[in-house]
Specification:
Domain Adenosine deaminase: 11-331
Radius of gyration: 19 Å
Bound molecules: hypoxanthine, zinc ion
Site (Important for catalytic activity): 222
Helix content: 40-55%
Mean pLDDT: 98
Strand content: 5-15%
Cofactor: Zn(2+)
Number of helices: 17
Pfam families: A_deaminase
Low-confidence stretches: none
Protein name: Adenine deaminase
Structural class: alpha/beta
Largest sheet: 8 strands, parallel
């Protein structure tokens, strides 16, 4: 294991983290019991053994199934608090956290229930753990654009609690262009914009082109297939559009971690970052993701430091947080 101590102490920023993807089997059982939900598993081991996904669609089936235990505001609070407690120990200082309101409102759990629980955990984590965070609301791309628009409108009373919007779920057959109107309205409302372009998806380059040229996002989640199109690579370098790559997640939904692409893109000047995506399902929090890059990529400590600096640069954190973190990371280990 390379650079383990350096990685552990490095101040870190997480930009691609689905809070519902942090639901560990033990919490799943506790919430199931508290809410009287019957699970088709008897032990945590059985739950873990059921995680045999080989692509995005098979992962998403398990991910949505797991959410059935999340019913009350307290459940969302517990979910987020457990995540914050874990990553505070990994020296994570700032998180931009995705949440999927439609995955809950479509089950009869209200928008307010979800966001009030998450918000309470965010405030507590900032005060007691020193981890600050902001929420990024994701629309589910396999639902109709009209449902996304209705969700956008429903979010407006909570606008001060949400920094940006994203797009996730099953990308096949659901191109970014399906949500052009929704994202134009989100921009008008003052939200920052990002979208998933998952790895090795059909029409990947066309989807990446759409998010850059038509939707005009500030960053792209995953997006490493951009390496196949040098003109698009040049464009994102010039416009400082960063990528949130997730090496451990990649090993579950594609043929590799794509660490080689991360290095190649970094070499060309792209602002690449390392993130965990859905750590409870993919078996690795952010420290493990940095470790994966170090072990597989044979990179030096300056490269690891640059990954963390890139995350600060492309984050939507308040300027004071960005400046303080940048200084701390630059001085770390010197
Ligand atoms: N891609 C698409 N949808 C998702 C992901 C992802 O990485 N994680 C949770 N939902
Ligand atoms: Zn994701």
């Amino acid at each position: 294991m390379a650079h383990t101590d350096f990685i552990a102490g490095l101040p870190k920023v997480e930009l691609h983290l689905h809070i519902e993807g942090t639901l560990e089997p033990d919490l799943k059982f506790r919430l199931a019991q508290r809410n009287g939900v019957e699970l088709p598993y008897k032990t945590e081991e059985e739950v873990k053994n059921s995680y045999t996904f080989t692509d995005l669609a098979s992962f998403l089936a398990a991910y949505y199934d797991g959410m059935n235990v999340l019913l009350t505001s307290e459940d969302f609070y517990d979910l987020a608090m457990e995540y914050f407690r874990k990553v505070a120990k990994q020296n994570v200082r700032y998180v931009e956290m995705f949440f999927d309101p439609q995955a809950h409102t479509s089950r009869g759990v209200s928008f307010h229930t979800v966001i009030s629980g998450l918000r309470r955990a965010q405030l507590e984590a900032e005060q007691t753990l020193g981890v600050s965070s902001q929420l990024v609301m994701c629309f589910l791309r396999d639902f109709q654009a009209e449902f996304a628009m209705a969700t956008l409108l429903e979010s407006l009373p909570y606008k001060d609690w949400i920094v940006g919007v994203g797009l996730d779920s099953d990308e096949t057959g659901n191109p970014p262009a399906k949500f052009t109107t929704v994202f134009a309205r989100a921009r008008k409302e003052g939200y920052q914009l990002t979208m998933h372009c998952d790895v090795d998806i059909k029409n990947s380059i066309e989807h990446i082109r759409q998010v850059i040229e038509d939707i005009r996002v500030q960053r792209i989640d995953h997006g490493t297939n951009i390496v196949e199109n040098p003109a698009l690579v040049d464009y994102i370098v010039e416009n400082r559009i960063g990528l949130t790559s997730c090496p451990i997640s990649n090993t579950w939904v594609s043929d590799s971690s794509k660490v080689d692409l991360l290095k190649e893109l970094a070499g060309r000047g792209v602002l690449v970052t390392v993130n965990s995506d859905d750590p409870a399902y993919f078996g690795g929090y952010i420290q493990d993701c940095y470790q994966r890059v170090a072990d597989e990529g044979d990179v030096d400590e300056e490269f690891l430091r640059k990954l963390s600096l890139n995350a600060v640069d492309i984050s939507w954190a308040p300027l004071a947080i960005k400046n303080a973190l940048r200084e701390e990371i630059l001085e770390y280990g010197k």
